[in-house]
Each structure stands twice: as C-alpha cells, then as structure tokens.
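Sharing a chain and its predicted structure for anyone who wants a worked example. Both blocks are below, sequence first, tokens second.
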Amino acid sequence: MKWNKTFVLFALCAALAWGGTPVTPPASSHQSQLVHNLRATRKGNKVMLTWSQQPRVLADRQSVMRHLVARVCRNISSTSSRASSSTTTCAQPVGEVDPQKTAGAIASAARGKSNSEIAVRFTDTLSDLEGRDPVQFAVYTVEVRDDRGRSAGFSNPVSVPLLRTLPARGLHSELDVHGVYLIWENDIESRPSSLQFDYRIYRREKNDPKVAISYLRAVVHTREGDRWSGVDTNIEWGKTYSYWIAPVTRLYSESGQLLAELEGEDSAPLEVTTHDVFAPAVPERLLAVPSNIPGKKFVDLVWAPNTEKDLAGYNVYRREEGGRTARINSAPITMLSFQDTDIAAGHNYFYCLSAVDIRGNESAKSSEIAAGLP
C-alpha cells in the first residue's frame, strides 16, 4: 500500500509537471473548465461565435498531451440560453474546429507558450428562417473533445433570436438645401404586434470608419410595401459620403419589454457628393426709412436675418419709377442694414433684396418696397 500511494503521488506530480489538465468525465454533468466564455453575435444570417479554450490536454494515466477539437452545437429553443445553465448533449452539430488545422480559426494566442489558452472563432450560417416562429432562439454550445473523440465537456450556452429582417430595396438619394434624402422600400408581409421593423443609416467619409447616424424619417404605406425616406441634415457641402442601410427587427413582450434585437445585412453602399447648388432663402421684412434730417438725403434699409450657415451676405437692388432694377452695393452686405445716399429729392425709389452664399448661389429677390424724398 505504501508503494501504491507513492506511485499515485508520483503520477500526479508528473501530470502537473506537464502543465496539462486531465480530461474530465464525459460532459454529461456540467460545463467544462477547458472551454468557456462563449459569445455569439448575429448580423443578418451569419452568427459569429467566439470562445476561449485550452489547445491541448493531458490524457488520464498517460504522459501524452492530446490536442482538443471543438464541436459547435446548435439547438432551437423557445427560450434564450439564460433559461438553461447546463447542457449535456449536442442537439445539432453545425461545425467542427480543429485549431491545428482550421485556417483562421485562432483569433489570438499567447506567444511562446505552447499550451496557453487560445481564442477561437467560428461562423454559422442560418437558413430556412421563412415561416419560423420569431420568438424562437438558436442556442449554441461548444463541446471540446480530444483527438480520440472523447468528450471533455461543454461551454456555457449562448443564444441569438431567429428573427427576420426586411432588407432595403431600391436605395437611391436626392439632395436639397436641407440635406441628403435616402429613399428605399421594403416588401410587405404579415407583421405580428410583437415585432417592430426599423432601419439604421450608416455613413462614412473617405477612409473614416462608418458610423450610425441620427436621421429624420418618414414612412408611406402602400399595397406593395412601405416607402421609407431618411434625411441626413448633418452634412457639409462639397464632400463625398458613402451610405448604407441596415434593417433592424425588434421583438417585444406583451408588456412592451424589449426581448431581442437583430440587425440585418447592410445594403450596397451608395455614394453621394454634396454639391451646393442651392440658393439661400429670400430675405424677409425689408423696411425703407427715408431721411428726415434737414440737409441730408438718404434712405435707410433694414431687414430680418437669414439663417443659412454658409451665408455670405445680401445684395440691394434699386430702380426708379419706370426704370430698370440694378444692384447698388459693390460687395455682399454682411450687416442687416444699408444706407442709400445716392438719391435725389423729388424722386421715388423702389428697393428689393437678395441673399447670397459663399459659393455665389443667390436667392430670388424680395418683394419691392417704395421710398421717396420730398
């Protein structure tokens, strides 16, 4: 008995010296220590799975390191993974990842350490979503097995909703003084009250990363589907932007609680160059005040301000009765008033006003206002 105890102690020390972890019993009881931190992200019909695992394991009663192969399992459930804390079987294998053989499977690994924990990734493609209950979930687990097929346990479960999205069709754009109008349509279909269909707009300028932007929206409902328009008002003139539309579906409970959200595949990019060919608004509230100071002849003009950010100033136009209208300022006026001193007593004058921006776009003229000196 003393010799046997000594041998067992020696075998345990040898196992620790190898730096490995003994294979656990078949994973029919609880989650494995060898694979954990499983996460899932769904974009459209693609589910990206990432997890951490040991690349090798020390076999029981042997001084042999065996590498571990991951089997990705999927189960369709009416509840998310939070409802189940343990998994004992692989309902539907959807793929296998051998970190030693699968190209691109290892996302990261510690350098210089042969048996350090590695981060692994796998992409699953969902299909046949048509007609499925939108309240269902795809629940994933990862089972690790050694190269002899012996199970070393399961990871934590994670889930993604089996929602459908409505892709944006016929994306095109229009440009006006308010910004970039993005216009698209979707296909009509039965829509349970628990589902909400929405869209995100992504924008990118040159080589910058694309970002989701806030936008003003409008929806027109037709027999064929919905016609959406989104207005990007936060633009700069003379720049080129790329836009994408991503459909979003949200699932709500009867009490209005958000249960799940899914973002679909981005549309093809749409490039828009914001050429400023739009004139400012017509100036308003023009007022003419003739001089009442003895010995001085002039007419003071005042008006309300325009609010365009690229406004350069104002042009003042004048004509005499029966005459032609001509501009009387040499450069755009940046004030909200102008004094006309080139006038004569006993004449009647008619004034109007326009606004001009920094690119030379000029508004239409305002209504005329009359002024005369006795």
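Comments welcome. The radius of gyration is 36 Å.
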